[in-house]
DNA sequence: ACCTGAACACCGTTCAAGT
DNA sequence: ACCTGAACACCGTTCAAGT
């Protein structure tokens, strides 16, 4: 006996749950069917196939990302605030970052943010191709950083890691004379701080470099 | 009748070929066995299972990356040269970037480059934690950029893309008054140029910001 | 229009058995 | 020490058949 009518949205919701909890690999057509209490093949009627189901999931959350409101007084501050907000949003959806990335939709997801960046860069006095370059440089830096950061979190222990490399004595290295440097590299990086530092440095340089 | 003794290296070579040509998804234990002219199960004896086979492949190419020799007169130039070289090396192994990234080994792959960066940053006069931050900022920027760039290449056509967004009229946008900016954003980005520009801007800012 | 089970062609992996 | 085929438990997808 058939259950209450299955809808496309119901399928997407259940699929999103599976992905959020255990990652995209855990999203199996058969498991999904079991979760929904239907035959595997019913899902195909609603979403086509697994590939387009994942497409729909990604599409959905790209929409959810919404617009970004910059905060701060100077354009530089406001750009940094956009960067921070973007990083936070992305980090809240780790599996989806990966999926969006794998599907090559990172660009599209960043269009709202790009608009905000354009506004701020313009306000800072940059014009034309130089402004476009600045926007893209910042955009690439943010996305790239988050991608790496996610990667780091997933594989926290590596060997030989920075700890082993910079913890010991390495002859002929500048670190040999610079104990503080060696110690800093032996410590795990503080992503929050490194992110702010990087974005600020890049923005400062890009905005100053006009004329 | 069994063929000439199968070796672990033989298995790895054949596997690497499959991955290089058609990506990791194309690496199937059964296809690999067919390629080698053995039973599927023989492969298991030599490499354990598919997972550790991929591990071995990644490990192998991480080794192949080797050391980086900086070029140029000033530390800034030499850092930029390291960045360029790294980007080239990574772009030559697109499928492997993805695999290394997915396995969280990006860090380890970059340790030789990190050494070179430490040397240059030190030569530029940075010390201690500040030097460590600079090294990591540059390192993150390079890796992040290459990850995004690879992503762009794989999905060249997106809709709505930057073209559609910035090609038309968008009321209330700074781009409305700045035709050159809108036109620049409607054009596809030149990754080569954008990369050089970003790294130079970041390095300049990081090296200047001492004291 | 929506759902079903059977069937097909794939997977990775295990295992007892061979030499 | 190395290789084998059979078997198991999974996949995604198609299709003819139901209501």
Automatic annotation (TrEMBL), chains A, B:
<dbReference type="InterPro" id="IPR050109">
    <property type="entry name" value="HTH-type_TetR-like_transc_reg"/>
</dbReference>
<feature type="domain" description="HTH tetR-type">
    <location>
        <begin position="5"/>
        <end position="65"/>
    </location>
</feature>
<dbReference type="InterPro" id="IPR036271">
    <property type="entry name" value="Tet_transcr_reg_TetR-rel_C_sf"/>
</dbReference>
<keyword id="KW-0238">DNA-binding</keyword>
<keyword id="KW-0805">Transcription regulation</keyword>
<dbReference type="InterPro" id="IPR003012">
    <property type="entry name" value="Tet_transcr_reg_TetR"/>
</dbReference>
<dbReference type="InterPro" id="IPR001647">
    <property type="entry name" value="HTH_TetR"/>
</dbReference>
<protein>
    <submittedName>
        <fullName>Helix-turn-helix transcriptional regulator</fullName>
    </submittedName>
</protein>
<feature type="DNA-binding region" description="H-T-H motif">
    <location>
        <begin position="28"/>
        <end position="47"/>
    </location>
</feature>
<dbReference type="Pfam" id="PF00440">
    <property type="entry name" value="TetR_N"/>
</dbReference>
<dbReference type="InterPro" id="IPR009057">
    <property type="entry name" value="Homeodomain-like_sf"/>
</dbReference>
<keyword id="KW-0804">Transcription</keyword>
């Amino acid at each position: 006996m058939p259950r209450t009518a299955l809808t496309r949205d119901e399928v997407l919701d259940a699929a999103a749950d599976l992905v959020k909890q255990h990652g995209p690999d855990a999203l199996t057509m058969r498991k999904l069917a079991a979760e929904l209490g239907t035959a595997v093949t019913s899902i195909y009627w609603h979403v086509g196939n697994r590939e387009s189901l994942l497409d729909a999931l990604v599409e959905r959350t790209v929409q959810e990302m919404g617009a970004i409101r910059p905060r701060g007084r100077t354009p530089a501050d406001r750009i940094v605030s956009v960067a921070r907000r973007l990083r936070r949003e992305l980090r809240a959806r780790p599996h989806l970052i990966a999926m969006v990335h794998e599907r090559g939709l990172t660009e599209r997801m960043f269009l709202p943010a790009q608009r905000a960046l354009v506004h701020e860069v313009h306000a800072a006095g940059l014009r034309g191709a130089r402004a476009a370059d600045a926007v893209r440089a910042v955009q690439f830096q943010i996305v790239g950083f988050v991608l790496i950061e996610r990667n780091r979190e997933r594989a926290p222990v590596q060997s030989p890691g920075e700890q082993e490399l910079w913890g010991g004595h390495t002859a002929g290295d500048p670190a040999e004379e610079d104990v503080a440097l060696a110690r800093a590299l032996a410590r795990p990086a503080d992503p929050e701080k490194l992110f702010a530092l990087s974005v600020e440095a890049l923005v400062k340089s890009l905005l100053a470099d006009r004329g």
